[in-house]
Amino acid sequence: MPESNLHKLSAMGVSVWIDYLSRDLIHRGELERMMREDAVVGVTSNPTIFQKAISSRSAYDEQLREILEEGETDAKEIFIRLTQRDVTEACDLLRKVWDEGHGKDGYVSWEVDPTLAYEREETYEEAQRLHGLVDRPNLFVKIPATKPGLGAIEDMIAAGKNINVTLTFSLQRYAEVVEAYIRGLERLVAAGKDPSKVASVASFFVSRVDTETDKRLDAIGTEEALALRGKLAVANAKLAYRHYLDAFSGERWDFLASKGASKQRCLWASTSTKNPAYRDVLYVEELIGPNTVNTMPQETIEAFQDHGRVAETLTKGIDEARKLFDDLAKVGVDYDDVTDTLEREGVQKFADSFEELLEGVRAKRGELVAA
């Protein structure tokens, strides 16, 4: 088999992850095939994906009946038990990747209840619980990068647990995410523990930035404003990567690295192209650089395999990226308001999806009880 576009992407230092998980994906051998043919080395999941899988397919019915027969009726607890099995099996399938790469890849992400996004202690407690339920070294627990979430992230890293920091939008918040990770590692080392067993990624949401910014540029409607559409998401990510390179170098980081700590990689999430006027692999092609992750939905995986172009792009055009921020401000786009809006709406969308998921579990529970 000739080397695929995704294998070429992987050779450039971009770890290819998929942004979905279901029982069928594992049991029908599709995940294993993608690991082989599409260079897939990781999985991220979210409530929306699980909601569709649980409510529309029969793959979960047998286990759901068992749970109901044991007397469990709480929808959230049922959901956790259903997805615990999927996440555990995916971790076991990807364990070889984790072993061979010495913990660089092979991770599966499982998300803390997003309705806890503004509760530091509750988030920390649930993240600890999820790590206990799937006791695998290649599990990531996802915590959103809200202000309260930052504290929970630091505490979890200090406890030696792997964390995928999700819902990161702004450069300022990203800097705070990195600081939380580094402080957590410093606390871990100060306690005499081994940081080499701890991994983290900072998930920067990409396409949503363009969606929100373009909406504002369209409303402004001037020629100068319209010319800036479709640019901020990539510029934002490139400047985040610039901060990553700076933050994980120098005396402070060198000390942690000497103890075995690993860098918190940038993960590009929300990389499907929402605007049909843009190239469907835009948010893969424009963000290619060493030691990064791109988690993609199925349609983006297939599109990049078909016609993706592979070249190092992430460190190119940094001056232009900085200038774009000035240009947007001049036409009246408030970057801070864009990213604040995206974080607020992102948390709400995740919470809404989670509630929809629980409704789906309740409906499925009702169907099986009635039968």
Which features characterize this protein?
alpha/beta, TIM Barrel, 371 residues
Descriptive account of the structure:
- The chain is of the alpha/beta class and 371 residues long.
- It has a single domain, classed as Alpha-Beta Barrel (TIM Barrel), CATH 3.20.20.70.
- Helix content is 58%, strand content 11%.
- The chain has an eight-stranded parallel barrel, surrounded by ten helices.
- Helix 10 (207-220) crosses helix 17.
- It is globular, with a radius of gyration of 20 Å.
- The mean pLDDT is 95.
Name the CATH architecture: Alpha-Beta Barrel
Please identify the structural class as seen in this structure: alpha/beta
In CATH's first tier, which class applies? Answer: Alpha Beta
- Rg, Cα atoms, Å: 20 Å
Summarize the biggest pleated sheet. Answer: 8 strands, parallel, barrel
Shape: globular
- Count of β-strands: 8
- Trace the largest sheet across and list its strands: 1-2-3-4-5-6-7-8
Catalogue the unreliable spans.
none
CATH topology: TIM Barrel
Mean pLDDT: 95
The number of helical segments is 17
Order of helices and strands: HEHHEHHHEHEHEHEHHHHEHEHHH
Distance between the termini: 48 Å
Q: List the domain count as a whole number.
A: 1
CATH superfamily: Aldolase class I
* Share in β-strands: 5-15%
Please bin the fraction of helical residues.
Answer: 55-70%
